[in-house]
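[step 3/7] fold_predict: job queued, chain A
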Amino acid sequence: MAYFQEIASDLFVISFINKFKNDENEFSNRMNKVLLLYDIKKAFSILQYVVAYKVVKLESIKKILNTYIENLLSFDEKFGSASN
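[step 4/7] structure written:
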C-alpha cells in the first residue's frame, strides 16, 4: 500500500489521471506517448495505479501495453537489435 500512496502523492501522475480518466481514447493516446517519450518508471506507475483503482477499463490498459510492445518491436526492426 505504501507504494500506491507514493504514486498518489506524485502530482504529475494524479494530474495526468484526472485530466484524461473520463475519455479512455484520449487516455490511451496520451499514455502511449508517455510510455515512449517519458520516464518509463513513471509511466508504469500510472498504469499500475489506474489498474489497482479501476480508473479505466482493463481492456484499455491491455491495448496500451500491446501498442507499446508493437512500438518496441518496430524500433528493433527499424534500427536493428543491440546484439547486431
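[step 5/7] annotate
The chain has one domain: 2-79.
The chain is about 80% helix and 0% strand.
exit 0
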